[in-house]
Amino acid sequence: TIIKNRKLRLQILKMFDFVPDPIVVRIQYRIKTGRRLNLKNAKRYTEKIQYYKLYYRDVIMQKCVDKFKVREYVRRCGYEEILNHIVGVYNNVEEMNFESLPNEFVIKDTLGWGGTSVIIVKDKNHTDLDKLKKMATEWIRPRRKHPGREWVYDKQKNRILIDTYIPSNRENGGLVDYKF
Question: Which residue, 48, 69, 71, 51, is CA-closest to 155?
Answer without folding.
Answer: 69
